[in-house]
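Re: the 186-residue chain
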Amino acid sequence: MEFEFLEKKEQGKFITRYDLHYKTVDEQEKVYEIISRNPDLKGFEDIHNKKVDAVVLIMHDESGERILINKEFRMAPGAWVYNFPAGLIDPGENPEESAKRELKEETGLDLIAIDDWIGESYSAVGFSNEKNVCCVGRAAGSFAKSSSTLEEIEPGWYTKEQVRELLKNEPFAARTQAYCYLWSRS
């Protein structure tokens, strides 16, 4: 693959669409469409996204016997999807501050312990350079309605048995599905 140039196509409020022009090993000219949170990509080095955009929360209850999963209505598929709490890191925030804020906003729960951080990953590697980090920890408190009217979220604690049943019949975000599958089998 030989990168040639990128072309900014459309500027949205939160994302920007670009066309990446490149040549394959057999000399075919190709265009690859991507979206980015960065509205100012100029070249190949810029698409590598050196900053983390979002945080994902993998939370267990204090006993470790239940996992927190949001059932949320997502506009892109037009459906209710099971997903971990997650959100963008606001300007001036570090990932830990964002994790605490997002957990509270989406579920009403408090982040009581961070046990680990899973390093950077891409949210949707097939069409975006958005990066996130996963905060693994424990949460407690009482559920509350999302503080944002832009989100429809139903948070819940699930046992391994309940997760195995959900995985058979309900749509999940890929990262949540993969983690929950492994967790429910351990």
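The CA atoms of residues 47 and 116 lie 28 Å apart.
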